[in-house]
Amino acid sequence: MDVSDILAVHEAKQKAVTVEKEIPLEVDTGFLTVTDLNPVDAESYEANLEEYLMSTARDGVQTLIASLFSLPTTSSPDGPLAQLPAPTTQLPRAKPLPKPKPLTKWEKFAKAKGIQKKRREKKVWDEEKQEWVDRWGWKGANKKEETQWLTEVPANADVDYDAAKVARDARKARVAKNEKQRQQNLARAAQAQGPSAAPAPTEVRKKQIDRTLAVTRTSTASMGKFDRTLEGEKKLKGVKRKFEPTVMPAESEKSHNLAILAKLDKEPAAKKSKKSASSSGGSDVLNVRKAIRTASKGKGSAALAREGSSSKGGKGKKGKR
Prior knowledge:
The protein is mainly alpha-helical and 321 residues long. It is built from eleven helices and six strands.
């Protein structure tokens, strides 16, 4: 039996899936990428661009698929899955390398003395409860003295000595001390980075204090002109108070007073929206209710009417004191 024809057909199929180029294609199966470093064939490129691009893409995809079929596979409900190897292409970082953080005061001291940092466990064993509890946080071991039912009282303690309050104040003092040291470390780190870095917390705090002091000094009637100044306190600049002239033209005084009356006569937008549709159109020139309340000193229209009638009836008579 002659099988040469069958072998020839099989060999032709194998050649169809084999990509041969002058420079072998670089395949990175981990990233599923193929890099073709061969120069562009100008003649084929100009003759038929679409065909040339399709042929180049076909060679790359064929090489990638052939490399995938050579990988070890694992079975799954969806079929065999290939195990991709680690990528070999070195990709650049999206961001620059982070700068090393400056050492804190304690880290510098520990480095000079050769002290090794020991990481403390987050859980500690509680002998009373016979279980592991958190070292910090809610129901933490650092609050044990605040919640225990029996506390030793010093012999020289006051009558109103509160052991839980003393323990709580000591814990909060430690927290405040740690926060202060953290702020100092940030300030030293900002100074070490140079003037282009962000301002130190002390500088920001100083500006806030100066701004508050300036607002406080200008909150008096004299705008701080006659206030007592502190030793070394700088004089404020740009704080001026504008007074209207004592004598002014009649037209200016009239326009100034009319502007004030126009502001007083304006009705708030919320009040305008609450007006009923039955009310007359336009805003009244005189607010009658406000006028009655002012004239009667808050007593109402009835009291104002009584005062009017009494003043008419007792005209010419000496009033009683």
